[in-house]
Amino acid sequence: MTSRWTTAVLDIDLPGGWAVARGPQGFLFDDNGALFPREWLKRQDLPILAEHGIGHLDGEPVYLLELKSVSEVPGCNWKGLRAFMLDGDHTLYKVLGYAAQIGTWAREHRFCGNCGQPMTQVVRERAMYCEPCDLRSYPRISPSMIVLITRGDEVLLARSPRFVPGVYSTLAGFAEPGESAEDCLVREVREEVQIEVKNIQYIGSQCWPFPHSMMLGFHAEYAGGEIVPQEDEIEDAQWFNVHALPPLPASRSIARYLIDLYVARRLGLAEPVLPG
């Protein structure tokens, strides 16, 4: 089956296609969604910082208009990427998630990190270029691990102060230079809750465009120690029985998938599908 959405580097000098607009408030949308006829959108007097050709949806070209500042368009509103993730259209979320990553990367690489001179977009390549330094910068992907720790019918879940009130999730953290994903897992678990784990098993991965992570999902078993939450990082951490779980993360997140997968296997239920 052919995917409805495929990424590509498109020539912004060609006419036509669809476009999405991203500004400080999120993505522009109306009653028909967040995709607009590109030529119409460019006539709306938007404060465009840059334009990027990002791919094809159902064979039609899609572009991103990255905006400098807040703007109003009659009949339209703005919504953050997380809100789109919770909506029903997963394909649109994938388009917007990719657009957000490209927009963030290009915005943060308008100037060379070596000499400070303006960078330019490379034609037919997803790169920003500094001619004086002959330096190319490509979209950033930050590897991180996320792990569900289990102890029989219990799972270890924690709360960050940044979470929605009441919601508990798995432990996660970014890999440091020189670390494997497994090294990162062991270190992060020790730092965040001060316990030891064993039997680490890789489960799957998910792109997480908040702003540019690649989440590597694992399952690990409890090996010893008492939970001691990391100050300023973990608000609370507890063992929860699979029959009495707290409010959990959004269903499209890999965190929720790791939890649902273990519960399904423990209770003999149908296994969920990893979100794409």
Automatic annotation (TrEMBL):
Gene from which the chain derives: nudC_1
Metal-binding is among the record's keywords: yes
Family statement: Belongs to the Nudix hydrolase family. NudC subfamily.
Highest taxon listed in the record's lineage: Bacteria
Cofactor, how bound (note): Binds 1 zinc ion per subunit. Divalent metal cations. Mg(2+) or Mn(2+).
Ranges of residues in domain Nudix hydrolase: 139-262
MF terms (GO), sorted A to Z: magnesium ion binding; manganese ion binding; NAD+ diphosphatase activity; NADH pyrophosphatase activity; zinc ion binding
The protein's name in its UniProt record: NAD-capped RNA hydrolase NudC
Organism from which the protein derives: Pseudomonas chlororaphis
InterPro entries cross-referenced by the UniProt entry: NAD-cap_RNA_hydrolase_NudC (IPR050241), NADH_PPase-like_N (IPR015375), NudC-like_C (IPR049734), NUDIX_hydrolase-like_dom_sf (IPR015797), NUDIX_hydrolase_dom (IPR000086), RNA_Hydrolase_NudC (IPR022925), Znr_NADH_PPase (IPR015376)
